[in-house]
Amino acid sequence: MSYKDWYTINSAPDGFICVAVDADLNFVKQYGISVGGETTGMCGCFAGHTMCRHKKMVTIFQQHNRIDSRWYYNFDREKWKAPPSTEE
Description:
globular; about 90 residues; two-stranded antiparallel ribbon; mainly beta
């Protein structure tokens, strides 16, 4: 994990997928985050049994209505990056 990474959150049947990309939006890694009831449960990262950054980002994305939106968030800088334009 790099503190330069950007993340996007997508829905999954059992919770969410947190995808990490670099500054050029190239895939770095992804983490599965399960949901138990109304709360975010386990994350596939090394700290997933505690409150890791990926589970915190699910809440941030939900607050901004950006789940499945292709928006990217840099957790360390607390900055958003708009989805890349599909027009060429």
